[in-house]
Amino acid sequence: MKRAAARLLCAALGLALACGCAPAAPAEEEGLKLWFPTQGRQLTAALDSCPYEGEATIPAMLDALLAGPPAEEVGLAGAIPKGTRVLSWSLEQRVAHVELSAAYAGLVGVELTMADYCITLTLAQLPGVDGVRVTASGAGQSYRDRHVLYPGDVLFSGAEEVPVEVTAALYFRREGGNSLGFELRVFRLTEDKAPAKAVLEALLAGPKEEGLTPLLPAGLAVRSAWVDNGVCCADLSAQLLELSEEARGPAIDSIVLTLCSLDTVEQVQLLVEGEPLGEFGGRDLSQPLSPSPEPER
């Protein structure tokens, strides 16, 4: 399942969306608008709009977004990568599903969030469209097939931190056996919360689904966690050493598999109280660990 939990966002955002990002009024009152990122969004509103005078249809408005802002709108930037094409669209139960070509799948982090919300705010002005689901060909983002964005998700003032959705697979022991199973969790994080640390803390808190049991000892704490060039350094407290010999291997597997479900993590370097370990649970913890083959859910 590599990236069963992957990529809506691989990092916390360092910008703010303005209250002006609310859905526009009906076309007959104010006219339709196209939404784009601003050129200087680190200092001003993250998104802004410009008038749209084309056909009030989903394909026409998508074509206008792909073309980018008009030349006279000097404060706006394009949100969607050049070369992106609309492969298909549909409208079901007031949700517009937009399938874009593989170029869109290259977006991550801030740029992906900006593009998703520009599409959402633009299309949600149309009658009959309440939410938008955006997928990309070849993206390998199966969870996004179920992820619907709404204009109300973007209502943040410029002084607030913008929540980011991060999805991860948390691995626990299956009840009545020694194999691992996982449950998917969605985390809404602000820029002051590192995704790796939030996911690890949730793993320590234990499973929510029936049939799974925790593997990590009570009292274990995450001292810090950060990602550098695909390696997540996870610094845990000394309670990790309290695990029995037979419990150590599965516990390490659960940590590594969980962290490697994040899109930015390929390997995990475990530390205890800031120091690397040697042999532990049959693993050499002096070097970064790659995930073992993942169990079926």
What is the gist of this entry?
With 297 residues, the protein is of the alpha+beta class.
Features:
single chain; elongated; alpha+beta; 3-stranded mixed β-sheet; 5 helices; 4-stranded mixed β-sheet; 297 residues; 14 strands; disordered N terminus
Fold and architecture overview:
This protein is an alpha+beta fold and 297 residues long. Helices cover 19% and strands 26% of the residues. The chain is built from five helices and 14 strands. The strands form five sheets. It has a four-stranded mixed beta sheet. The protein has a three-stranded mixed beta sheet with strand order 3-4-5, with helices on one face. A three-stranded antiparallel beta sheet has the order 7-6-8. Strand 13 and strand 14 form a beta hairpin. The longest helix is centred in the middle third of the chain and has 15 residues. It is elongated. The N and C termini lie close together (10 Å). The N terminus is likely disordered.
The chain-level mean pLDDT equals 79
Poorly predicted runs are: 1-29, 139-146, 155-160
Determine the N-to-C terminus distance. 10 Å
Please tell me how large the radius of gyration is. Answer: 22 Å
Could you give the order of strands across the largest sheet? Answer: 9-10-11-12
Write the SSE topology.
Blueprint: H1 27-30, E1 33-37, E2 47-51, H2 58-67, E3 86-92, E4 95-100, H3 109-123, E5 131-136, E6 164-174, E7 180-189, H4 195-205, E8 212-213, E9 222-228, E10 231-236, H5 245-259, E11 267-272, E12 275-276, E13 279-280, E14 283-284
